[in-house]
Amino acid sequence: MEYLLGEITKRGHIIVGDMDKADFVLLNTCSFIHEARVESEKVAKRLSKKKKVILLGCYVQMFGERVFKIFPEIDLFFGTEGGKFTEKILENLNGKKKILKLNGNENIFYSLERYPLNRFHTYIKISEGCIRRCSFCNIPSIRGGLRSKKIDEILKEVEKMVSMGFQEFEIISEDTSLYGIDLYKRRMILKLIESLTKNFTDKKFRLLYVYPDKSIYDIVSAVKESKSFIKYIDVPFQHVSENVIKYMNREKVDVFEISRMIKKMGLVLRSSFIVGFPEEKAKDFKMLKDYIKEGYVDKLGLFMYSDENDRIKDTVDYSKKIERFNILININKRLALKRMKEKIGKFHEAVFYHSDGEFIYGRLLEDAPDIDDVIVSNNIKLQRFNLVKVKVKDIKYYHYIC
Ligand code: SF4
Questions:
Q1: 236: CA distance to ligand 1 center in Å?
Q2: What whole-number distance in Å separates Cα of residue 316 and Cα of residue 325?
Q3: Nearest CA to ligand 1 atom 6
Q4: What is the number of domains present in the chain?
Q5: Helix segments in 71-175, DSSP class H
Q6: How far is the CA of 217 from the centre of ligand 1 (A)?
Q7: What integer pLDDT is reported at residue 309 of this predicted model?
Q8: 139 alpha carbon to ligand 1 midpoint, in Å?
Q9: Which stretches make up the Radical SAM core domain (predicted)?
Q10: From ligand 1's centre to the CA of 175, what distance in Å?
Q11: Is the CB of 245 under 6 A from ligand 1?
């Protein structure tokens, strides 16, 4: 979305956060799971009653021409990587014609202007698409095969954002482990970590979406050794049982061993898991439960399986899925609270973003933006968009209070 906004503002349009002041609303949609699609539909229908909505993203890419029937009240539809369609969007803003443009997922990574939505951290997308075929995932069919961005282009993009005052960069992709294999015929993530570290010694980087395969050991070591990378890694394991991992069509790895290695290296581990996956037997669930209980994962993302492509039949009862999901969520809540309480009374680096006049909100530097925990202070004069040292005094509603 930042790329599309960048291209639009470059052509003289103004972005406003307040919908009442806007002439058009750009709505970026998700289509990863059933709940995300329902949410996208609800929001699109609600907003299109008030404003002219331009619908973008994965939902459009996935549904193609069916969007005309689903949203008769909307005229403009564009698939993923919306920035590529800037001209087409602007040409048709005031038209009455129905327009649908899908992303061809051409074998190229587009470098476009950015309109950053934050002033401290930003996301650097190092590749688009994915060449793996996890059985539950629609991303390869929506976003196409892997297209990596060249290392020197990534360095230039970071350089530009640094000149604009950005201090922290979240390195993202659909599959960070395989970065570069299409362009350079070999994995280049280690080289990228090395180049970013060498060129931006006083900046912070965080590695997200690292697929757990044989490369994980070297990647974790590189993050640990780097002076610029935050000691944090996101490795979406999806499950711990070999039986389920096989049904997911993912590489067989020892999740327990990898997790122990990550903890030994002193990194914060974020991971996501799918509960109630087809063929998840009681013993598989027990393995997952025992794993979560062990507390390897510092930041847990948990999803209940939903059949996304009719390829794998949903074999676990809905009530069983809910039961298993709730068991894991409750275990994690207890562990998360315990971890948070360990920070009380200590000083931590934090960054604050916005204030509602009464409180100011931000996050600890060790937490990833947008997905991890929130820190709140009533000292609304705290400096924003810069690192400050604060003492955590309490935990309330799973928020740090300082
Ligand atoms: S690696 Fe990630 S994006 Fe690729 S198919 Fe698997 S889950 Fe989907």
A1: 10
A2: 12
A3: 134
A4: 3
A5: 86-91, 139-143, 151-163
A6: 19
A7: 60
A8: 6
A9: 116-338
A10: 7
A11: no
Q: How far is the CA of 211 from the centre of ligand 1 (A)?
A: 8
Residue 235 near ligand 1, beta carbon < 6 Å = no
In a domain, 269, yes or no: yes
What pLDDT, on the 0 to 100 scale, is given for residue 400?
97
Which pair of tokens denotes residue 88?
A: 């087409």
Q: How far is CA 264 from CA 165, 168, 217, 258, 259, in A?
A: 34, 25, 12, 10, 9
Pull the structure tokens for residue 105.
């997922």
Give the residues of the chain that fall short of pLDDT 50: none
Specify whether 251 is located in the same domain as 266.
Answer: yes
- What is d(CA 278, CA 261) in angstroms, rounded to the nearest whole number? 29
The atom of ligand 1 lying closest to the CA of 130 is: 4
**Contact of 175 with 132, CB cutoff 8 Å:** yes
Structure confidence at residue 114 (pLDDT):
85
Pocket test of ligand 1: the residue of 175, 239, 273 to mutate, having most ligand atoms within 8 Å of its CB, is 175
Asked if residue 312 and residue 225 are part of one domain, the reply reads: yes
With a 6 Å cutoff on the Cβ, whether 132 touches ligand 1 is yes
Same domain, 154 and 215: yes
* ipTM score over 0.95, yes or no: yes
Structure tokens, 82:
């919306």
Within-domain flag for 11: yes
Q: What is the pLDDT of residues 23-39, one digit of tens each?
A: 999 999 988 778 888 99
CATH code of the domain in which 363 resides:
2.40.50.140
Which residues span the domain enclosing 78? 2-101
Ligand 1 site, residue 168, Cβ cutoff 6 A: no
Residue 125 C-alpha to ligand 1 middle, in angstroms? 15
Q: Is the CB of 308 under 6 A from ligand 1?
A: no
Q: What is the pLDDT of residue 310?
A: 62
Residue 71 lies in a domain: yes
**pLDDT tens per residue across span 163-172:** 999 999 999 9
Considering 101, 129, 152, which residue would you say is the last residue of a domain?
A: 101
